[in-house]
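hey so i finally got around to running the thing on that chain from the lab meeting. sorry it took forever, my laptop kept dying and i had to restart like 3 times. anyway pasting the input first so we r on the same page abt which one it is
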Amino acid sequence: MSEENLEAFRRGFEEFTATHAYRPETFHPEFVWDMSTFRGWPEQQTYAGFEGAQAFLAEWLEAFDDWEIEPEEYFEAGGDRVVVILRQRGRSKASGAAIEMHFGQVWTIKDGLSTRMQMYASPAEALESVGLRK
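ok and heres what got predicted. didnt touch it at all, straight out
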């Protein structure tokens, strides 16, 4: 991935963290949101298209009050992939408990469009999945 494409991805992701909304024009029609790589995820494993990503996000956010997500680092992962290390904070609507999560995502970008996102329960798992170590 070129530095220019990585920077464009970074700007788009930071826009998402501010608005909690993705821009549909940045997703390939055959995009897949893949939770099968998230150790222990009991729910639906994949979500298809931009609509699937939106459905996942809506379901996820429904469980939280005061939700925020912060990208900590970006790693160019060779070819068309980028790893994003994230920290998420929120308060459970059900219990009121504060929740914090540190995890990673691997995004595949082709021709400027997101084609796949794979979620990992830890930054190390995300980095290892693309042959990187931190």
